[in-house]
Fold:
Amino acid sequence: MTLALRQSTILIIDDFQGMRTMLREFLKSMGVTAIDTASNGKDALQQLSGTKYDIVICDYNLGPAANGQQVLEEAKIKNYVGVSTVWVMVTAEKTPEMVMGAAEIRPDDYLLKPINQALLETRLEKLIERKQSLAPIEAAVKSLNYADALAQCDHQLKAKVTNPHEILRVKSDLLLAMGDYAGATALFESVLAVRDVPWAQTGLGKILFHDKKFAEAKDIFRRVLQENEVYMEASDWLAKTCLMLGQHQEAQKVLLDAVKLSPNAPTRQKLLGDTAFKNGALDLAQAAFEKTIKIGEFSPHKTPAAYTSLAKVFTEQGSPQDALKTLAQSKKEFRYNTEAAIQTAAAESVVYKKMGQDDKAEAAMHEAERLIGTAAGKVSAEVAIDVADSLLKMGRKDKACSLLQEVVKNNHENIELSKNIEAIFEDHGLVAEGQALIAESRGEVVAINNEGVTLAKHGDLLAGANLLRTAAEKLPNNEVILINLCGLLIGMLSKEGKSHQIASEARELLDRVRHINPSNKNYHVYTAALNRIMGSH
Amino acid sequence: MSDEISFADLMASSIHDMKNSLNLQVSALEKIAVRCQARGDQSGFDELGAIIFQSNRMNIQLVEMLSLYKLGKSIYPVDMDEHAVAEVIHEVVLQSQFMLGFKGIQLSVDCADDCYWYFDKELLKGVLVNALNNAYEYTHDRIAIVVRLHNKTLELRLEDNGPGYPQTMLRSAVASDKGVNFSTGSTGLGFYFCEQVAHMHKNGSKRGTLHIENGGTLGGGCFVLTLP
Structure:
């Protein structure tokens, strides 16, 4: 028995008194003295918020309210448990959530019943030991210091760790996050040369998806699923790929199969609802959005979009009263959230319009626009697209177009967003107009960007930077403009010598890029370059 | 989407509940048994041991039934991943510690620490627990677990020094037919489960196999699982 285990503070979460007592006695016999217990998710979170536990032993099935996975997610997102906490999920049987890659936030291990003391003790000791090797990598990932995390992975792989595949997997995720697709491909292929494993296959699929080779990506995800029916990650990617290929019926089928196996992922249920709604399968969409709301209630993934989407379904079904009730509920649930208020107000206006109450419809849309004004620049693309859809339904095409232009200009390389925008124009019979708007808005940004880069290439770094500075003011959320401007500033620093003013401007740009997309490839390259230039006093 | 519950689903969820109760029961019984032994009550200890053995059998069968039900419906979350074979065996041994002590069986494990292989960990543990539980009944006093690598295939042998399998069982072509004997209460579930698990494991065109033989290092029954 290691000292580390005996000195640990441990929280047991189980709704079953008998299990709590049994686990507590096991731990006492191991010499552990600091043991707390909780019988439900709410109590558990309360205790987690007040005490920093070394180990949490949590039953997956906690009765009618939140399940173990939801407690874990909330605890992680609220930072009640850090990278050094060992979280063990106890389950009666194997569930799809347990298969690698099924959930973004995972416990450190699953323990299947029946449990006895000897088994629990060895497992906990092993996990403490593994935590010591993985925690530094996790900490680096959490602070977005990918280069450092990568170096630590390589260090451990060289030191011949006991779990090489686990580290390789973490490393491949890092390479993908940093945009090093060639490195990731090489890693996956070297693993696959020895053995056909689903995570490496799926990895190759993700790279094809990124390269916009959707048909080939689809083949891979399909093959992985044929061999491993319960590999949820491949299933989610397959659905995404089908949507990119415009195969909405197939995507619906894939998602429907997936939620039958693993029904408690809010994002998957929401995507099923969206897809079914597009396909006109209103009953299915209704069920999926209702489920999204239900499971989202205890989840950090709770989103007002589930409510506005459900309201849209009710409106289509000819039940505007139900739609209004749903939106009223959303207002209550997201009382302090401006974005939610914008989305809800815009959705309300469409319902009133459908009911023939034009005054109320106008008033609601007016409120949505007023709120957009106050939240200037901070409205997410998803919300903006949703509001534009409502505006089109209200016959306010001009306003809708200007809103969507902003979205495209700020995200001109995001093909998934463009697809969503196209779909909205299509719904209103404006296919050509939509395509023109996207091409034009995108073209404008590309032209400015190219001009800036060309000026810089010809040696006029300052002129290029100034051009991009003006563009960045107008498009504060355009990742490409921001990062290219940053690149030019770094060029100036290395050519013309250190300047703290320019360095701090570059740092601010990097912060903004990281906020928009923490896996921007150049973000990591430029951060390293900037540190090199400015750090070498 | 319907939330209708079928009889099979109802059975599956009841099995869960039974497993929970059994887990608590076995753990409580083991504690009482240890107390019996400590105060020198050998007959109490023996009686409890026999009860615990039966509870373990029930638990194993429930797990197998649940897994087979899910495999049949293609909803078992198969999770082929790389694991240290010795660690998995160690966990199975820990799970069976009380029984081994109770029966006075000496168990040896011959497996390299750096032997890693690909398999579904929980299913393999299910197979090992089953084979071990079988061996308790027939061995004299020794069981050996031997792990070897042959031609890129993992061979896992569980051998004992009992009388070995009867000729009728060795001759039967289908492994799962071997165990059916209504007079002894053996249903063949265990073999069927192990065979299914072996078959599910594949690498390229090769699949896992299961067979039984007599002899081995201890001269008794040998349960042999191969995984590609």
Q: What stands out?
A: The mean pLDDT of chain A is 89. The first strand of chain A starts at residue 9 and ends at 13.
